[in-house]
Structure formats: C-alpha cells, structure tokens
Design goal:
Radius of gyration: 22 Å
Number of domains: 2
Bound molecules: acetyl coenzyme *A
Distance between the termini: 29 Å
Largest sheet: 3 strands, antiparallel
Strand content: under 5%
Structural class: mainly alpha
CATH superfamily of the largest domain: Citrate Synthase, domain 1
Amino acid sequence: MTTMTASAAGLEGVVAAETALSQVDGQAGRLIVSGHDIEELAAGFDFADTAALLWRGLAPADSEAAGIRAELGRARRAAAERLPLLLPAADGLSPIEGLRLGLAMLADDDAIGDHLAVSGAIPVFTAALWRRQGGQEVVAPDPELGQAADFLAMLAGRAPDEAPARALETYLVTVADHGLNASTFTARVVASTRAGTVSSVVAALCALKGPLHGGAPGPVLDALDEIGDESGIDAWLDAKLAAGERLMGFGHRVYRTRDPRADVLKGVVANLRGGGNRIAFAEAVERAVLAKLAARYPDRQLDTNVEFYTALVLEAVGLPRELFTLAFAMGRVLGWTAHIFEQEQSGRIIRPSSHYVGPVPDGAKLAAVAG
Ligand code: ACO
C-alpha cells in the first residue's frame, strides 16, 4: 500500500490529463493556449476567435469564428427567454449563487449546443441578476454585439464605450484557459462520468467560486480600500500576515515567477486609465507584498497572480466587485467546455485512489458474524 504524503494532498505534480488546449510553464512564467502565447492571444483574438481556437476539432459542429459569433448571439437571446423563471427563484441569493442556479436550470442536451448555451447564458444571467437586485428593468441582449460589449450593455442599460468593451473582451480572452486549474479539473472529473456539459460546467462554477481560486479579485479591491493610501501599506500587511491570513492576488500553485496574465492585464488597465492613481497605488501595494512574502517564505517564490490586476481591470470597466467571479466564469467557460469535449473523447472515468487511515475492525468479530 502506498502512503500519501502531505505534499501530495493538493495533487501538486500529478499529471491527470493530456491536453492540446493550454500549457502553464510555471518556471518560465509562460502560458501557451492552443499554440499561441497568451500575450499574442490577448492582443489579436476576440472572444469568438478564442472559442473557435479552443473548440476546433472538439465541438460537435465545427465552425469558424464568424459562425460562432452569430451562434453566441442566438444563445444569449435563448438564455434571456429563461429569465422569467430564473429571476424570482434567485431572489435572496448572491449573484454567484444566482448564476449557479441559472446554469443548473439548463438542460444537458440543449438544442443549440450545450457549449454555446452555457457560454451565452453566463453574461445574460449575470447582467439580469444584478439589475434585478438593484430594482432595475432587465435589458434584452443584442445578438449583433460582441460578447463583452453586449454584457456591458445589458448591465448598464446603454451601449458601452469602445475602450471598456475592448478591455473586457481582452480580459475574457486572457482568462479563457489555464491548464488543469481546480475548476477545469472539476469539469473534467464530472465530464468523465458522462454527466453532460451543463452538469460539468455547473460543477466547475462551484469550484471557481472559492476565494482561493476565482473568488480572489473582489477581496483584492477590498484590501486596497482597507489599506487606503501608501502610508497604510506596511501596517496593514503586517497585521494580515500576523493573523495568518492569505494576501489575495498573490501566490500560485504552478507559477514560481510572475503570472504572465498579470502583465497583460496591467497593460489593459494602464491603457484604460492612462496610468492613473489607482494603478500607481496598486503597484506600491504589490511591491510591498512581494517584499514581505519573500522575507517570510524565502524558499517559496510567491509572486503576483492574475487576480491582482483582474480586480483593477474589472473595476475600471465599471463592474461591481460582486460580479468579478461571474466575469471570470464568462471567460473561463471557453476552457471548461473545450476540456469537457477533450475529456469525453478520452472516454475514461477519472477515479483516483485514497489512503485509508481509519480504524481496522477486528477480524475475529467478522469471522463470528459470518459463522
Ligand atoms: N498570502 C500569504 N501567504 C501565502 C500566500 C498568500 N497569497 N500564498 C501562499 N502563501 C503561503 C502559504 O500559506 C504557505 O505557507 P505555510 O507553509 O506556512 O502554510 C506557503 O506560502 C506556501 O504556499 P504554496 O504551497 O505556494 O500555496 P498553494 O500552492 O497551496 O496555494 C494559492 C496556492 C491557493 C493560490 C495560494 O497562493 C493563495 O491562497 N493565494 C491567495 C488567493 C489567490 O490569490 N487565489 C487566486 C489564485 S489564481 C487563480 O486561481 C485564478
């Protein structure tokens, strides 16, 4: 019998799938998505281009970006038809819980294609849940718009400016896929049981919700607000570390250097705001955090992860922090669905082993019962 060591408790170093979708090189700080460096993807691909790239050769009806763009528009319209059922049922839930409910209401064999149905539903449900919570009328999707522009239009009730729409689209592309992170692994485990795409995506969303994964960027902004200004940084950090708390937006299971997506998103926010005060303050916080973490964990190399500058991008495009994790899901759904297709092709159920450490019953008693 093999004994599971404490270091394997998080499955680090375990290779649990073969994938052609993305590679995270944690030593070099390099992310490749379907043959493209993340910097190239972020600069030249929109959401539909990225969907075409990730779904190519995997989705049941293979199509080019233009076709996918139109199909996503149709999927958003189809999702809007479900709002009369979803919205009253979601009253009293947080936005992420409302989205979880909304996705769970979709069928596992949607006529439009499950991967399209879930991808179209996330922006529609998110915007409608938020407007309902604020007592505002729901805004219908416009199938002619791109994914990010339509989401911002449904959220604010007016057409967005080009710069924030483009910034959000770049964000969605930047986070679309990232190896076997916790939510993608979850999606693949559920897909391996042949439960279906929607069920696999619902499970993935539940994993994403946690503060150690996709729930981090909201708390990043909370932290910046709590710190207040540069004079408060050191005292705040010392108090948090002394209390044993984790600093959101820093550290990563795989990266032993800076997460390349952090720089992509820092560039996005700098373009949006012309290098305004918030980014200068964030950089000062980042410098201080990295120095403290290096002093505290000299052997570990903890660096900035994607969530730190995600928080600034999403704030700058006008999203309330309660919707940050939902925006993450809006991008990551492309990776989830592609991994689900890939896992279904492999055909093998994911079923690891565990090491039993509980009491072993006395064999004599069993013999007495059997006898
Ligand atoms: N703040 C303070 N201490 C930290 C941080 C942090 N952000 N990250 C790691 N550490 C500490 C750990 O507590 C651990 O200390 P210990 O040995 O005394 O317990 C030590 O550094 C080593 O931790 P790792 O093995 O590097 O961390 P692990 O791989 O288990 O966890 C994780 C990675 C969950 C991302 C962690 O760094 C963390 O909690 N970060 C903050 C949350 C966050 O930003 N999450 C978003 C990640 S990116 C994404 O999912 C999209």
